[in-house]
Design brief:
About 75% of the residues lie in helices and about 0% in strands. Helix 3 runs antiparallel to helix 5. It has about 190 residues and is an all-alpha fold. It contains 6 helices and no strands. It is globular and about 55 Å long. It holds the Pfam family Thia_YuaJ.
């Protein structure tokens, strides 16, 4: 029985990572920043997996999502460490939204509490991803900062232009999904 549970877990992770990649690919058609970054729907499956399986599910789904973006997506890679930061690490840390896994599971019958926890979890995942992108931007994209502007300030602003809308969109959609189909994050 234990083997079947592990296999089911890995199948769920693979399916959600693939869905995240496809949603991100579709999102990139409408809005793509010049040095990388999009307002993406791809984080939603990572959040759903984190709410369903906790930290392990969220972190692994985010990591595989990052691998897919580099392997078969259209990545903006300028240096191996920049690729590590902007793809592997940035999307893995989105899975830390799973730290609220138990609270979200327990709040499924309480609409207001569930909405609050989903928004908080989406904020945690998006904020951690944002911090990683800011670090990568400050290190690898300093030449794009206007003269006299601190590189970190430029990176904070640049990455906020797509991360804030991504946070808003992903939080709203996750709330709508779990309000209408809470069984997506419950296991039997």
């Amino acid at each position: 029985m234990q083997v079947n549970q592990r296999l089911l877990f890995l199948i769920e992770v693979a399916m959600m990572a693939a869905l995240a990649f496809l949603l991100d690919l579709a999102s990139g058609i409408f809005f793509k920043m010049p040095q990388g970054g999009t307002v993406s729907l791809g984080m939603i499956p990572v959040f759903i997996m984190a709410f369903r399986r906790g930290l392990s599910g969220g972190l692994l789904t985010g990591l595989i999502f990052g691998f897919l973006q580099v392997a078969i997506g259209n990545p903006s890679v300028y240096h191996p460490f920049q690729a590590f930061l902007d793809y592997y690490l940035a999307f893995t840390v989105v899975g830390f939204s799973g730290i609220l896994f138990k609270q979200i599971q327990q709040s499924l019958g309480n609409r207001n509490r569930m909405i609050f926890l989903i928004i908080l979890a989406a904020f945690i995942g998006n904020f951690l991803r944002y911090i990683v992108h800011v670090i990568g931007g400050a290190i690898f994209f300093a030449e794009y900062a206007p003269d006299g502007m601190p590189v970190v300030l430029y990176s904070l602003g640049y990455n906020a232009t797509y991360m804030i809308p991504t946070l808003i969109v992903s939080a709203i959609i996750c709330c709508l999904i779990l309000l209408t189909a809470p069984r997506l994050v419950t296991r039997k």
